[in-house]
# Entry
Amino acid sequence: MLGKLLKYDCKELSKTFLPFYAVILAMSLLDALSLRFQWFYALFGVSTIIFGLFMALGVVTVVLAISQFYHSILSDQGYLSNTLPVKTGTLVLSKLFSSLIWMFFSFITAVLSLTILLLGSLSFGEIQEFFSACWQLIQAVFDYMSTSNGLVNVLIMVLCALLLFLLLFAGLANEVLHFYLSMACSQLRPFCRNRIAGSFIAYFLISIPVAILTGVGAGGTAALVKILNLSQTLSGPGFVIFILSFSLLGIMILNLLFYFPTCYLLKNKLNLE
# Structure
């Protein structure tokens, strides 16, 4: 059932995101052409517009991730969503995963737009040199992997990159779940008179113990590293893997502390009046 809900939520968000992505990519292409051809710049001077669109991309992604949860669960549409034969936790996970998926696509769109702008600012000879350098880098990596310790070192770098990627998305999920819990708290009596204002107040109130827990966790990790002398015991890459893994574990625990209270409040305290 989670798959069906996720497909539906992604489809709903695509109605807003896909046209917006198309506009950003089209404006990036126009900007790249204006950088390459002066006559084109005279007709379509769009350099300032594209930077505004980049800023809007981040804002729109976050706002839609929050508004989708509010409108589908806490507004009038919630009457339909909450009568579906699924658990509350499944509804929350569907909204969370769909938000993360479109955040990933927003990142890909930003990278593609920057790539288009970069290629537009280079001459044809520089573009050839750029792709030639990329190919030489790939060949150098494969040549290095054929050495005695090369494959192990490359796998370690890949593991570090994977952990960093997971840490980034766990952090994004943490922020989204933080908003979800804040909106769920607006169902409680102190905040229900004005639920939008109550959600913002709850957000800042929740931030206080979260900041304390984060500080305690960071201090505990630093103390553990010092007591066990891990910075000397582990090699450079091993120490980086330890820090990334420990940070990922901490964020996942914090995500669970956001997720379960959100599910409880939506299941037992939901009031759509």
Q: What stands out?
A: The chain has two domains: 1-121, 136-273.
